[in-house]
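pinned: reference chain
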Amino acid sequence: MALNGYSKAVTQDPTQPAAQAMLHAIGLTTEDFYKPFVGIASTGYEGNPCNMHLNGLAELAKEGTFSEDLVGLIFNTIGVSDGISMGTPGMRYSLPSRDLIADSMETVVQAMSYDGLITVVGCDKNMPGALMAMIRLNRPSILVYGGTIDSGSYQGKKLDVVSAFEAWGSKVAGTMSETDYQAVVEKACPGAGACGGMYTANTMAAAIEALGISLPFNASNPALSKDKQRESVTAGKAMRLLLEKDIKPSDIITRKSLENAIRLVTVLGGSTNAVLHFLAIARAAKIDFTLKDFQKISDTTPFLADLKPSGKYLMEDVHDIGGVPAVLRYLLENGYLHGDCLTVTGKTVAENLLEAPKLSEQQDIIRPIESPIKPSGHLQMLFGNLAPAGSVAKITGKEGLYFSGPARVFNSEYEANDGIRDGLVQAGEVVVIRYEGPKGGPGMPEMLKPTAAIMGSGLGNEVALITDGRFSGGTHGFVVGHITPEAQVGGPIAYVEDGDIITIDAEENTICVALSEEILQQRKAQWKQPPLKCERGVLYKYAKTVSPADTGCVTDEF
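pinned: its structure tokens
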């Protein structure tokens, strides 16, 4: 296929004079019409530190394309700031934005007949959304992550966005002064870049680098570094090789490369959202990959990284010890990666890592395999009479592996936030937050505000929390999300009452309520499905079309 196999339908067809006239209007020459056209999709916008610098990186990527005699053309799509919308009705739009991003990128590239795609992305849902579009289009593509934010600082302590959430819990509990609280809020996020810990953005960026669809060091190069600027130019240049060799996402994203990605997520202690997103990515790629596949990887992979939220280090610290390539090299040398997977460099994973730095024995961010934080993974897929189709727990081992206690039930996140603030939640209880699933939310909002409030109030080691919603990558504690079926469609979580004994066993991978099947059926018969919370608009459409959490919450299969 010619390098301009798609764009020539517009640029070379003599029956398309109007299209060609419009391309001349944007400054292209007749000579440019013989070059490949590369769409450069930026999720840049001013309202979010994760995205505020992305349009500048897109311009650098465009410079890279022109230096390789390609025509780079920038377009924009939407984004939602999880950190800003968290705990508000706006959080309902976060997960739906992933599919809107995928749909919009697919739409522009198809409609404008671009031969390849560069995506420049920042916040959590940008990355899986962009990757889903790349897979659907299956044209030479590369992803550029905007990079991690610098750490904040107050009274000699490193800060990040979760510090601000947890400070609120401490203030409510009376253990932090108003002065200190305001100082933490003001100093937590010093500038551009995605949230600094191993939260969802850095989790997905690291996993996508392991997947092979971004350049080495893409995940760990800081947002405002010269390295990130150089990398953005290099990404534009790399499109020439991808087009010449016709290397497409389907050549890179395979079962083996998915296993590499999830293996790294497990080693780094990444976000539960990676499960949801990679289920959707696998479905887009038509690869059979289920919750049980995640569990198999978790069972055979140690948790090694002492990173926030459960640890003490940030992504900037990973960068200082050699970045994601250093971690991948360590895993490859110890037999945890498929080294023969193709990447966007045109080389295999193993070939890319030949020149990668080695982890120093002096660093303590990534533990040796012989002395892990936890010998198996932190992501556990739990099943039982509360989650017949599965759920996702984030168990680092620091919280313990078993929790049993009476339920404290809330029918929304807002109810739970009020209950925590008012002291309703007591030590030993299992907090249940329901009707927050993909349909019930709608939009499956993240529960960082209640989990951070629990941590800040000093109950982090005293209670568990379960939900049919999601958790932020910044969440830590004994938490279980993605409970499926969700309450809105009559899942068993809808029938739980205050005082019911719930048991979470992360060794047996079970989550159960101590009720007989007979009692559950009696409660089911008495339950009435509530109406959807939206009657029109994006969230109504999402609630009507979205698949369950155990299949990735996709909206293109209905």
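why pinned: The chain is about 40% helix and 15% strand. Residues 468 and 483 are 4 Å apart (CA to CA).
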